[in-house]
Every structure is written in C-alpha cells, then in structure tokens.
Amino acid sequence: MAPEVVSQDTAGQATRHPALAMLRGAVVAGVVVGLNAAAVAGVAAGLKGLLGALLGLLIVVVFSGAGLFALHLSRHASPTAQLGMAMASYTGRIAIFGGLLALALSSESLAENVNLTALGISAMVVVMGWMAGEIWAWSRLRVPIYDLDHEVNA
C-alpha cells in the first residue's frame, strides 16, 4: 500500500506562528481604520488633521506591532519566559511612549504642524480597529490544546 501524501492545506492543521498571524490581522484592520480616520480628519481639519491622524496611525502600528513581534521572537521559550518577555515589552513600550508623549506635549512645532485632537482621536480609533483585527485573527487560529509529538508543517 502506498504512503498517504498529506497536503500542506489540511483542514484543522495548527497555526505555526500565531503571533505573526495575529499581527497580520491587526495590521490590516488598523491600517484600514486609520486611513479612513485620516480621510475624515483631512476633510474636517485640513492638512493638519490629516497629518495628525496619520501620525496617530503610525504610533499605534509601531507600538502595538512591537508587542506582537516580541511575542513572536519568544515563541521557542518556556511559558514563563514568554510571560516575562511580554511584560518587559509592555513596560518598555509604555516607558518609551510616555517619554515621547512628554516631548510631544512640550513641542511647539508639533502643535503648529499637526492637529493634536485628530491625532488623539485617530489613535484611539486605530487601537479599537487593531484590537478587533487581533481578536478576529486569534479566533481563526488553529492552536492545539495538547502538546504535539512533532513539528507541524504549516
């Protein structure tokens, strides 16, 4: 009897890199929401609103994406090390964000060239879109609830 050939597209196969799959879903959703927010801000507040909304989009994508990428990098570590990496990544991102926020609030040139209201509102909207995309991607992952005896080819 001939050995059975298993397709790479087998239904029910585990997702090999869940953090990257979540990153893809989140980036797509965040960028779509962010570009729509930028269009609305551009119409409502002109060029300064457009620049503010695009800056808000960039901030959310960079900071949120860095967290998922850090989890991807720690995928071969123990669960305890992964938790430590996630917490260190989060703490570092919050510290960097706080420093950049302090610089932005004291910068007169930023306030002259960017609508800060559009920046804040678009950042909040993009975060909501990002989280929705991340949750949507997570809900479609194939993550085994038991240890596999061998590496899954996906």
Task: Please give a handful of descriptors for the protein shown.
single chain, 154 residues, mainly alpha, elongated
Quick structural gist:
74% of the residues lie in helices and 0% in strands. By secondary structure, the protein is an all-alpha fold.
List the helices and strands and how they pair.
Layout: H1 18-73, H2 79-106, H3 108-113, H4 116-139
Helix pairs in contact: 1-2, 1-4
Instruction: Please state the overall shape, judged from the principal axes of the Cα atoms.
Output: elongated
Structural class estimated from helices and strands: mainly alpha
- Count the helices. How many? 4
Question: How many strands, what sense, and barrel or not for the largest sheet?
Answer: none
Helix content: over 70%
Quote the average pLDDT.
86
Give the number of domains: 1
Secondary-structure element pattern, one letter each: HHHH
Low confidence ranges: none
What is the first-to-last residue Cα distance? 26 Å
Radius of gyration from CA coordinates: 20 Å
Oligomer: single chain
β-strand amount: under 5%
Number of DSSP E strands? 0
What would your notes on this structure say?
- This protein has 154 residues and is mostly helical.
- The chain has one domain.
- 74% of the residues lie in helices and 0% in strands.
- The chain is built from four helices and no strands.
- The longest helix is centred in the N-terminal third of the chain and has 56 residues.
- The radius of gyration is 20 Å and the shape is elongated.
